[in-house]
Specification:
single chain, alpha/beta, Mannitol-specific EII, Chain A, six-stranded mixed sheet, about 25% strand, globular
Length: about 150
């Protein structure tokens, strides 16, 4: 799977000034809603927050992949933010997070959900890619890195 299959340039934001995990999730929910116009951002946020209650989606090394399943979504949708300043995200390594890739999948898409999560986690385990994302100047440059 390529991230370009689930991500669009309009759902990538660089320099987001979130001051907490909750604010970062709110921004991801807003961007995900752009790809699911029939679903309210507040409902997406509730789905993401509900998953976070089961355990942090922080991977470590400054990366988090908040995700959720939702009725009313017909295809998997991705969104990405690079935060202006890292936020505490309750990660297992204790490191704050500044790279956040959100994933929303259809309610019954369990296999697809797991495949997407694995592909996203693999992409962000590449230290060189993460360094390039940190150095990228704007949304378009980050999208090009993620979609490539």
């Amino acid at each position: 799977m390529k991230l370009a299959d689930i991500l669009s340039p309009g759902r990538v934001a660089v320099g987001v000034a979130a001051t907490s995990k909750k604010r970062a999730l709110e921004e991801i929910a807003r961007l995900l809603a752009l790809g699911a116009p029939s679903v309210a951002p507040a409902d997406i946020l509730a789905s993401l927050a509900s998953r976070e209650k089961l355990g942090s989606t922080g991977l470590g090394h400054g990366v988090a992949i908040p995700h959720g399943r939702m009725a009313g979504v017909s295809t998997s949708i991705g969104a990405f933010v690079r935060l202006k300043h890292p936020v505490d995200y309750d990660t297992h390594d204790g490191q704050p997070v500044d790279l956040v890739f959100g994933l929303l999948v259809p309610q019954n898409a369990t296999g697809e959900h797991l495949q997407h999560l694995a592909a996203i986690a693999e992409k962000f385990s590449d230290d060189d890619l993460c360094a390039q994302i940190h150095a990228a100047r704007d949304d378009a440059a980050v999208y090009a890195l993620l979609a490539g």
